[in-house]
Recover the amino acids of this structure.
């Protein structure tokens, strides 16, 4: 049981390049999330998914796209990277709890992205 | 709109001393509140959560937090800090569309 894994761990891009970050979870969780973490700003939600084939915007969605083609995977794409997207990206997943709506999130180890 | 404020960017305490980390939130309905801890280079780990019931909640590693609706606060406490508690602590509010505070970095002096 690996929990939440993220690929790659580190990446350096040039401005204008594209890339995809992969998040995978083996806990059969319905919900998945992408966050970015910047110094002094905590974590900010980029996009999230409440199930296979569905996605929704979070607090800072601009410049990013996501896809959830399989329940266990959540992809984050940068079509044209900008220096402002230099950050640490965290993926998380949670199990839908229909009774209380309680939603503990389990986090991956993060991807450090630098855009030059 | 929901938001979280952690007034203290950095706190230093001596090992064995008590600890309180402050968290204030803004949320339209009954809040779901969380405290997470992040060690350097790691992801976040849930310490404790509140979503209903007893306003004093116990978490892992000897931490507890108290929900005070009248003060819109959810402060984290620990009676005796250990050197291994040095980390960054994040308060969060919400459900799927969660909002995190900016974090409080805890340094523990020997």
């Amino acid at each position: 049981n690996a929990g939440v894994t993220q690929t790659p761990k580190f990446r350096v891009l040039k401005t204008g390049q594209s890339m995809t970050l992969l998040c995978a979870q083996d806990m059969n969780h319905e919900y998945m999330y992408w966050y970015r973490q910047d110094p002094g700003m905590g974590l900010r939600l980029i996009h999230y998914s409440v199930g296979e084939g569905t996605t929704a915007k979070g607090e800072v969605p601009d410049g990013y796209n996501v896809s959830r083609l399989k329940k266990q995977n959540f992809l984050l794409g940068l079509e044209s990277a900008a220096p402002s997207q230099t950050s640490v990206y965290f993926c998380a997943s949670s199990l839908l709890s229909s009774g209380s709506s309680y939603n503990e999130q389990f986090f991956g180890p993060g991807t450090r992205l630098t855009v030059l | 709109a929901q938001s979280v404020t952690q007034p203290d960017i950095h706190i230093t305490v001596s090992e064995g001393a008590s600890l309180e980390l402050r968290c204030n939130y803004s949320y339209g309905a009954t809040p779901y509140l969380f405290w997470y801890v992040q060690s350097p280079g790691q992801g976040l780990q849930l310490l404790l959560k509140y979503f209903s019931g007893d306003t004093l909640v116990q978490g892992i590693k000897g931490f507890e937090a108290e929900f005070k609706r009248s003060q819109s606060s959810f402060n984290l406490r620990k009676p005796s800090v250990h050197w291994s508690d040095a980390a960054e602590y994040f308060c969060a509010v919400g459900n799927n569309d969660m909002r995190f505070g900016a974090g409080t970095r805890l340094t523990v002096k020997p």
Chain A has a mean pLDDT of 91. The first strand of chain A starts at residue 4 and ends at 7.
